[in-house]
Amino acid sequence: MKIISGDFKGRVIKGFDIEGTRPTMDRVKESLFGTIQFYVNDSIVLDLFAGTGNLGFEALSNHAKFCYFNDINIKCTKYIESVIKELNIKDKTKVLNINYKKALNYFKDNNIKFDLIFLDPPYKMNILNEIIIYIKENEIINKNGLIICEVDDLYLNIDFYEKIKEKKYGSKYIVIYKNNL
Questions:
Q1: Beta-carbon contacts of residue 100 (< 8 Å; ≥ 6 apart)
Q2: How many CB atoms lie within 10 A of CB 38?
Q3: What is the total count of domains within the chain?
Q4: 141: which strand partners?
Q5: Distance CA 118, CA 156 (A)
Q6: Is residue 87 assigned to a domain?
Q7: What burial class does residue 126 get, using C-beta atoms within 10 Å of its C-beta: 0-12 exposed, 13-18 middle, 19+ buried?
Q8: pLDDT by residue (tens digit) across 78-124?
Q9: Consecutive H or E run containing 96
Q10: 3 belongs to a structural domain
């Protein structure tokens, strides 16, 4: 895997072998960022189940203003911190190593709102509906912000955001919602 566009284009993202990670493959990421390219510049980004940080780093490479990376796996957050140091972008990032519920509460309690939210939890958890409802109820996403979901099954039941894309890539789907409110 590597960063496919922007300032860090060609930078290899390792860590795909960290247990529990399932990085978004380059061809899927290329299609995804082609869809969201006009939303990335100057955005505040959340990569909630960051894993290797692949999606957050791609957003930063394409001029996102700031990215919050969160993962409960300490190996993942240590790897993300090492890449941040190598890329010299500490001033554009914050890394959290807590479970997703604590992370969401942290953002709510600190009035942090996002323009882009990447949600790629372990598939077996089936928690995306719950997370997206929490985001809506607590106004964690800005107007015109996007929620980008990676799922293995289309179990999402979201009718309060506009679905702007749903596409299957192999055994997974990318679903993108827009907050028009």
A1: 48, 49, 70, 72, 121, 127, 131
A2: 6
A3: 1
A4: 114
A5: 15
A6: yes
A7: middle
A8: 999 999 999 999 999 999 999 999 999 999 999 999 999 999 998 78
A9: strand 93-96
A10: no
